[in-house]
Design brief:
- This is CobW C-terminal domain-containing protein.
- It holds the Pfam family cobW.
- It contains ten helices and 15 strands.
- By secondary structure, it is α/β, with parallel strands linked by helices.
- It folds into two domains: 198 residues, P-loop containing nucleotide triphosphate hydrolases (Rossmann fold, 3-Layer(aba) Sandwich), CATH 3.40.50.300; 122 residues, CobW-like, C-terminal domain (Hypothetical Protein Yjia, Chain: A,domain 2, 2-Layer Sandwich), CATH 3.30.1220.10.
- The chain has an eight-stranded mixed β-sheet with strand order 4-3-2-5-1-6-7-8, with helices on both faces. A five-stranded antiparallel β-sheet has the order 10-14-11-12-13, with helices on both faces. It has a two-stranded antiparallel sheet with strand order 9-15.
- It starts with a helix and ends in an 8-residue tail after the last helix.
Length: 347
């Protein structure tokens, strides 16, 4: 019996018209990405996952996409690409790979996509606890953000792997360094890339759909993690850092759009030393003047969008929380600009 006939006999666990969640896994070379994927493929988890695996080398790299059943058996090997960089130089091939996967829609529950350590953005970033401190110190000739720092800044979940190779003091310092870059992402610490699959699947990190009862909205994440303004943060940080701002009241979306466009598109907003504030990522939960729902705003580099989630409770205090991740962050400047977006008392 042919492989194609075998695939046709596999029961459809996901309706063909349902969206298939995709999770991107990235991290520096040797951080444990492939080990994590091998663990996922061998664990008895009852999920069917299509995995695009990548190996980066000097010669031609071979990437294999596998459809894996609930018992971990391999049904088919059916994809081969020629380059290791998904988001940039082989973007078209990467899109084609996902298109090929979707022709078999209904045969799997999830897609996991492993990128090389040179690709971004990353949804889940694997960190090598032993080598990450040195990697964070590496300087690029053009003074741009190095790969590890950028991956941390763009992550929704950061897995600190190989924690058995460092001391408690070293691990605590690494946590501090990561939180300085990205205070929003969830941190997971592990050895041998062992993680709870329920944590890393169904992230819905960039979903524009309304939140539902079975998914945690961004506003819930803020509440659960106790976000507060970063009172300890330096006024200006020329490295990649995080700034969290909170303001009570309602936001005028027209004014907020003007602020975000000046910040992200036009690069007009400078810090007190005249340097352009560079935003890698932005997330926020807002109360807008237009209606009584929570609104989530997200941005990666110059792209940003909103989506509407749950209504505010009648007795709930309207609170706006926004997290900036980037370079040349200036608290006073961003605080002033964000405050200007609030509805005036006379409105």
């Amino acid at each position: 019996m042919s492989d194609e006939e075998n695939m046709d006999q596999i029961p459809d666990l996901v309706p063909a018209n349902k969206k298939v969640p995709i999770t991107i896994i990235t991290g520096f070379l040797g951080s444990g990405k492939t080990t994590l994927l091998n663990y996922i493929l061998s664990k008895q988890h009852g999920k069917r996952i299509a995995v695009i695996m990548n190996e980066f080398g000097e010669g031609d790299s071979i990437e294999k996409s596998m459809s894996v059943g609930s018992a971990g058996e391999l049904f088919e090997e059916w994809l081969e690409l020629r380059n290791g960089c998904l988001c940039c130089s082989v973007k078209d091939n990467g899109v084609k790979a996902i298109e090929n996967l979707m022709t078999k829609k209904g045969k799997f529950d999830y897609i996991l996509l492993e990128t090389t350590g040179l690709a971004d953005p990353g949804i889940i970033t694997m960190i090598d606890a032993k080598n990450c401190p040195q990697q964070l110190k590496e300087k690029k000739k053009d003074s741009s953000v190095n790969e590890v720092t950028r991956q941390i800044a763009l992550s929704d979940i950061i897995v600190i792997n190989k924690t058995d190779l460092v001391s408690k003091k070293e691990l605590e310092q690494l946590r501090t360094d990561i939180r300085r870059i990205n205070s929003f992402s969830q941190l997971i610490e592990t050895t041998h890339s062992r993680v709870d699959l329920d944590v890393i699947l169904d992230l819905n990190a960039y979903s524009n759909a309304n939140s539902s009862s079975d998914s945690i909205g961004l506003e819930d994440v803020f509440r659960q993690r106790g976000f507060k303004p970063d009172e300890h943060q330096h006024v200006i940080d020329q490295t990649v850092s995080t700034l969290t701002l909170e303001r009570k009241g309602r936001i005028d979306k027209v004014l907020l759009d003007e602020f975000l466009q000046d910040l992200l598109w036009e690069k007009k907003i400078k810090n007190s030393e005249g340097q352009t504030i560079e935003i890698l990522r932005l997330k926020g939960v807002l109360s807008l003047t237009s209606d009584d729902n929570h609104h989530v705003v997200q941005a990666v580099y110059e792209l940003y969008d909103y989506h509407t989630t749950t209504p505010w409770a009648v007795d709930e205090e309207r609170q706006n929380t926004i997290v900036f991740i980037g370079r040349n962050i200036d608290r006073e400047v961003l605080e002033h600009q964000f405050s200007q977006c609030l509805q005036s008392d006379s409105s």
